[in-house]
């Protein structure tokens, strides 16, 4: 693997530079004195911001973008060998790294690097840690997979030894990391277009855990089914969190205010410590916060600063985010949930708030995930009063013909829930405007572009 000498900046070209994670890495290199070029299929606010910082951006991916002045090419899993730029880089013999390999090399420059992994909850937990580290005046570098208001985007470049980032399991990309602290929130069946089954996913998390050095720390959900698989034969310290009192960190007496924000009593080594109040929603975020507390305490941050950071953290955009109100006090929320476990957690959080009837506009994300978890999606969504299913967001995939949004809506309706498919966002918006009633709660949900429905409704 090509090794970057960070004391000798070079010209790095990013294929897909407008992506939320790629753009963050490009910004880190720009601020480290590197020359950054890149390409994307379309211009965006992100590419405009990078251009303002000094990056040279090409819209459209063509072989001519790969010039002889480029020293290194970085690409994502969405870039395939038949891509024009990819082929040109190979033909010119230019060294290439994946996005994860670059991130792994960047992390090695920091003494206290923290990687937040898990099938669910990575972005929110990284956000929590970010607030805590900033309030502790550690001046951290942060790379988060969403837009975080406290740092004005998805990246913050600090000047200290602290670095926090998400670690995604897709394509085993996080195996390129060597964090000082590894957090493993949960292990669930997802990305089944890449992994064979849940056992292979659990083994992947085990390999990730082994990347933590002997002097480092793995913070792991002690309640999860695959705990023993993940932590077996680790040479570093292990700290657990979860519901069970056998964990070093657990939560007692969880309660919610009228808006659904939780407060709980932090329990450490079986002893009650203090009450913690969160500004994010849902019981699942109570356990996410326990992992952040564990990491912060291990870094020597005081519990008072930790409490302050958690009380300020509203999470990243698209995590049960309040968008506004339409009609007669119909609240519009938006959430990134695109897996049945995430959907259930979000809807459970919604049920801690007050409303008349619960509406969900769900946009399935990828054909493979919808097909593999078809029954689980229907089960998770049937708790709503009304479900509108939008067309499947293909992302990196092509329609296999094995599953459709209409089929999912029909499956949900079999349980007695008012569920149906509508073919366009305009149809969905018009239907909602005619049928939502006073004090209803509307959630747009999915990892694609379904959020635009809420934005359009509020404009209308």
Task: Describe the fold and architecture.
There is one protein chain. 33% of the residues lie in helices and 24% in strands. It contains 15 helices and 21 strands. The chain has helices at 20-31, 45-53, 84-92, 99-107, 122-135, 198-210, 227-231, 283-298, 303-312, 340-350, 367-372, 374-381, 405-413, 425-435, 451-459; strands at residues 11-15, 35-40, 56-59, 72-75, 96-98, 112-117, 141-148, 153-156, 162-166, 181-184, 217-221, 237-241, 249-256, 262-268, 271-277, 321-326, 330-335, 358-362, 386-389, 418-421, 441-445. The strands form 4 sheets. The protein has a 7-stranded mixed beta sheet, with helices on both faces. It has a 6-stranded mixed beta sheet with strand order 16-17-21-18-19-20, sandwiched between helices. Strands 3-2-1-4-5 form a 5-stranded parallel beta sheet, with helices on both faces. It is globular. The mean pLDDT is 93.
